[in-house]
Amino acid sequence: SKxxxxxxxxxxxxxxxxxxxxxxxxxxxxxxxxxxxxAGDKCDLDDxxxxxxxxxxxxxxxxxxxxxxxxxxxxxxxxxxxxxNGLRVLEAVEKSRYDLILMDCQMPEMDGFExxxxxRALPHAxxxxxxxVGFTAGAMQVDQENCLAAGMDxxxxxxxxxxxxxxxxxxxxxxxxxxxxx
Length: 182
Hints:
two-stranded antiparallel sheet; five-stranded parallel beta sheet; about 20% strand; alpha/beta
């Protein structure tokens, strides 16, 4: 079992506590599309593995949304930094490495659309290709179109359930991981 799981970029193992029992696990490193097909519409625990150790920058001006979003992403295993506007996004990406930006679209000083356009114009290729997922209260087709037109890779409407976050951010994190290993 261990050899087979390792051939599929996975792992097998167990934890055991005397008097409480044992837990056995099998993780397979399947491509995102295969995991999504196997899971159907529900997010699987293995879908969450891509979040382990991922560095995510959250751009959000609402303090309640900041706390909730941070907690959800940290529960998935991500390392999260939070900034309150687009200007802070541009400063943060120059100082630290991120795997993804979850970008609120409407913020004071500089909104998410302008921040994304400026990010895409930066001279450093790794910053220009950093995945950006728009995060907005708008749920209309035009909201998605505005996000994509600004250079965002995808769009997520608020309030977002855990399943939606995993389904939208997971593929972007996987694409980033593939690019970094290539």
